[in-house]
Amino acid sequence: MTATTNPPSALGALTRNNTFMGFLFLLPAAVFLLCFLTYPLGLGVWLGFTDAKIGRDGVFIGLDNYKALASDSVFWMTVYNTVFYTFIASVLKFGLGLWLALILNENLPFKSFFRAIILLPWVVPTVLSALAFWWIYDAQFSILSWSLIKLGIIDTPINFLGDPNNARFSVIAANVWRGIPFVAISLLAGLQTIPQSLHEAASLDGATGLQRFRFITLPMLTPIIAVVMTFSVLFTFTDFQLIYVLTKGGPVNATHLMATLSFQRGIPGGQLGEGAAIAVAMIPFLLASILFSFFGLQRRKWQQGGQD
Amino acid sequence: MASVQFADVRKSFGTHPVIKGVDIEIADGEFVILVGPSGCGKSTLLRMLAGLENISAGEIRIGGQVVNGLAPKERDIAMVFQNYALYPHMTVADNMAFSLKLKGAPKSEIDKRVKPAAEILGLANLLDRFPRQLSGGQRQRVAMGRAIVRDPQVFLFDEPLSNLDAKLRVAMRAEIKELHQRLKTTTVYVTHDQIEAMTMADKIVVMHDGIVEQIGAPLELYDQPANLFVASFIGSPAMNMIKGKLDPNDALKFVTDKGVVLPVAKAPESAKGRALIYGLRPEHMTIAEGGIPASVVVIEPTGSETQMIMRIGGDDITGVFHQRISARPGETVGLSIHAEATYLFDAETGKRLV
User: Fold this and answer.
1) What CA–CA distances, in Å, run from B186 to A176, A205, B195, B309?
2) Is the pLDDT at A308 greater than 60, yes or no?
3) Where would you tag: which of A135, A222, A271, B194 has the fewest CB atoms within 10 A of its CB?
């Protein structure tokens, strides 16, 4: 037999080229991202610069939508509501979630049962839990009002969703209830990466339980807290379903968030351009929180390995 | 500094007993090593002394005071963990100063204690590093530094050298021993490595299956093992053990199950007619013309000495010889056994008879 030598083919050369192959493997993901992320985002930003209405293509009107929003008291009310809602809910979710994670990290009876059950609020579809809260907050049939009346603490049912301030705190409570599992389970996972021997060493060094939390648990948990709270803030800031089911933004816009106002103006109101502009106005806030996490997430000096 | 006593200490996890009644006396300033195979309860015992595990029954005393009900931080002990347990988010200096900071010591006093400890351990120029930036041996030293700074009643070491490579382990062994000679703090050290135990300890406690098999100075355990377990655990290469009986006609002859006759120096009445185990340390034999014929299986020269695995009858035995050996595998050599250095164990109870 004689040895046959293949002439170097162009295709063969291409498949040996790492840059080309890398590009080829990236292509499906890139197409997917372009179609489903970049295009809708770009379209939204574009609509914000037009006077598009439902059923009519808009024409470019520059910053007119934003100028209108700047003098729109309802818009500024929703900005205030969104920031207030996000801030209070995130602080509560962090505090309660960390507390829950610390409890679940102890050696409790039925530990795995409690860990599973804690996830329920997160697993239930938002609309379902919102409907449940709608009944809990009902002006006449609220179980909370009923219980408090039976206990003799109040005489008349609480108007949970009818009074502006009550409504604000009611939707925050519902959001906190729904958001705690995410925070608690993520922080629990973080707590479990802290070696037990560090706590043992600290208690031999004379640390009390509180000092162990302050000097061992908290510093070692910070990187995870940064990630978890960034996500939590993003979820809360863009919340829509809960508000839409519970109050639709009422009473008198007291619970209207930027996301719900954007939807209301854009779809039922038909002002696509204005709705898009409100949505785009959320971007600076979201970017700020992402930047915050970017710097919070940077590896601290003690996490870097190797010789210097 | 303080003495430590274990008085009939017991520990069970659920219904499963892991420490089955341990009595140990540790004098002030002594270096005691708990040694035994994994799962023998030595680490559990150490953690009970530290206060990290509950004591199911019995008493542990430090400096005469019963500490059963005291929290770890009230016992004034320092511990070096197997994985060092350095605080990763603190520098070397902060790691060492942590206990002092918790006590609220002023900065000047912290410096006064951290600096000399760092000098002793050769960490003076690493004080600003984080644990991640240190090598295994350096981390080990930081862990010891953290203990020294405390100036505690008792030092505890839980297998501190097992994460280091062989060469570093030998070096750290000498460092720990030197440190103890300098500080003279009572030390309890846990290891599964009998060489570590032999080389470092004032007193060794051999543990097995939750009980103490024997307590004694290193050479005492080596020369007078109480039973088969201690005899086989202490010494490397391990003692040769051959099953057999005493010759009914001549009690100074041991006949192996395979029919080979081995010499015995003295035979107590109790040994006669029983199933026995003949114990022979690898170094207690020489090669001599006309000795017991042994066929060579494997020769392992290490330079300073030569180990040889030989077969007599059907039993494999290991010998260590200081002269160079010219024999080849398969050849037969004559073995002369030092009869006065041999042991006889009861095959049933494992107790040493001679």
Assistant:
1) 54, 18, 21, 41
2) no
3) A135
Distance CA B156, CA B164 (A): 18
How many Cβ atoms sit within 10 Å of the Cβ of residue B48? 24
How far apart (Å, rounded) are the C-alpha atoms in residues B29 and B47?
20
Query: Ramachandran region of residue A254, left (φ > 0), alpha (ψ -120 to 50) or beta?
Result: alpha
Residues A255 and A168: beta-carbon distance below 8 Å: yes
Question: A304: which chain B residues are within 8 Å (Cβ-Cβ)?
Answer: 130, 132-133
Task: Please give the Cα distance from B269 to B275 (Å, whole number).
Answer: 13
What are the boundaries of each domain within chain B?
4-229, 237-346
What's the complex ipTM? 0.82
- Residue A34: DSSP 8-state: I
d(Cα A219, Cα A122) in Å, to the nearest integer? 27
Question: A10 pLDDT exceeds 80?
Answer: no
Closest C-alpha among B12, B134, B5 to residue B67: B5
Residues 6+ apart with CB under 8 A from B238: B232, B318
- For the ranges A236-245, B8-17, B263-272, the lowest mean pLDDT is seen at B263-272
User: Is the Cβ pair A204, B72 closer than 8 Å?
Assistant: yes
Looking at residue A305, its pLDDT comes to 46
Contact B132 A305 (CB under 8 A): yes
Residue A189 has pLDDT above 70, yes or no: yes
pLDDT at A142: 86
pTM of the entire structure?
A: 0.79
What's the confidence (pLDDT) of residue A4?
55
User: Distance (Å, rounded) from C-alpha B297 to C-alpha A291?
Assistant: 71
B34 three-class SS: strand
Closest CA to B245 of B231, B232, B228, B262: B262
For the segment B301-305, the average pLDDT, to the nearest whole number, is: 89
Calculate how close chain A gets to B59, using CA atoms only, in Å: 20
Q: What is the pLDDT of residues B85-106, one digit of tens each?
A: 999 999 999 999 999 999 888 9
Strand partners, A53: A56
Tokens 């493997």 locate to: A25
- Nearest C-alpha of chain B: how many angstroms from A204? 5
Specify whether the CB–CB gap between A142 and A158 falls below 8 A. Answer: yes
How far off is chain A from B206, nearest CA to CA, in Å? Answer: 26
Which superfamily does B4-229 belong to? P-loop containing nucleotide triphosphate hydrolases (3.40.50.300)
Q: Cis omega before residue B225 (within 30°)?
A: no
Q: Do B77 and A216 touch (CB under 8 A)?
A: no
Q: CB-based contacts of B234: which residues, under 8 Å, 6+ apart?
A: B194, B197, B198, B204, B206, B221, B222, B225
Within 8 A by CB and 6+ apart from A8, the residues are none
Would an 8 Å CB–CB cutoff place A305 in contact with chain B? Answer: yes
CATH topology assigned to domain B237-346? OB fold (Dihydrolipoamide Acetyltransferase, E2P) (2.40.50)
- A78-298: which CATH topology? MetI-like fold (1.10.3720)
pLDDT in tens, A106-128: 888 888 888 888 888 888 888 88
Q: What is the pLDDT of residue B157?
A: 93
Residues 196 through 225 of chain A touching chain B, CB cutoff 8 Å? 197-198, 200-208, 211, 215-216, 219-220
